[in-house]
Each structure stands twice: as C-alpha cells, then as structure tokens.
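During the reporting period, our protein records have gained a structure token line. A sample record is set out beneath this paragraph:
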Amino acid sequence: MNSEYDYLFKLLVIGDSGVGKSCLLLRFADNSFSESYISTIGVDFKIRTVDLDSKTVKLQIWDTAGQERFRTIISSYYRGAHGIIVVYDVTDQNSFNDVKHWFQEIDRFASEGVVKLLVGNKSDMTDKKVVEYNVAKEFADSMGIQFLETSAKESTNVEQAFLTMAREIKDKMTTANEGGEEKAALNLKGSSVNANSGGCC
C-alpha cells in the first residue's frame, strides 16, 4: 500500500457543456473560481487529498467535455471510475432533461455498483432558476442516489458534494474488504491524460 494515502478513488464529473463542471472542480481542488467560459477539450483531471474517518483518501477527479463529439473519448473513462457525479445547471431546463441520458451512459459504460451523485449547479442564480429543488430531489430519490444543489461561485455545497461521494465509496469498499486487509483502490501506473483544458464549463 502507498504510504501517502489509504485509498485512491477515481471520480468522473459529467453533464452537458456549460453546466459548470470545471468550475466545481476548480473550486474543490484549488478553491478558485473564474467567470470566463472555455469548454473543456476532451478530458482533464485534478487531484486532492482529504481525510475521512482517520483515513487519507486521494481523489483523482476527471473533468469531461460535455460536447457530443467527445462522447466516444469520454466513454472509455467510465469503466475505471469509483464514483460519477452528474451535473446540471439549475437555470437550464435542457441540461436537467439530459440528466436521464447521462445516467443511461453510466449504465452502458461504467462498472457495476459505481457510486452516483446528482448535482444541480449555479444555485446562487436564484432569479434565473428554472429547475426546482423538489423536482430534482424526487428524480434522485427514484434513482436511489443522493442529490445536492451547489454553487461553484459561492462555494456552496461543493466540498460536501465531493466528500459525500468519497465517503460513500469508502464505506462501500470497507464493507467489501471486511475480513481482509484494506487495499488502495487504484494503481495509477500506466494512467494518462489524453487532452488538456481551460476555463469553466
């Protein structure tokens, strides 16, 4: 086991272009925010280490492009993910409507038992909000997954979203490893980044 961490979890952030996936990741990993909008090209990732229940957990978080032309590239990243966060924009009804499609992608490409979380971003834009909390919560409940509204701009629930997912994965792995020695979740050797990115999408 790597002495620097007890667990290494790979998280994937998916959703339509422009919902704020990169902004959420920037806020969580670097505690920064940018108003500029530049679409992610392909896939990018950031790493942050957190402490959970006296365990050191390293999170490798992959930020994906929302555009249709990158779907084939992104589908290959689903398989190794321990957790997938589906993001929509609370001010964009279409991005919420597309959530069902993203969950279909997870069912198609991800490993069985992957932890899922629904996130409604841009909750600070209350005057432009079109997707009500109760509607999204009802949908998440029907899927048997957790749901949070976040604001990358105001740092609302961003930390909670990623830590909620990390804790759920850790609890799942601890249960699976009971009776045996706990092992690091993932070996990073051989992993690579296919493309870089910039800005908030």
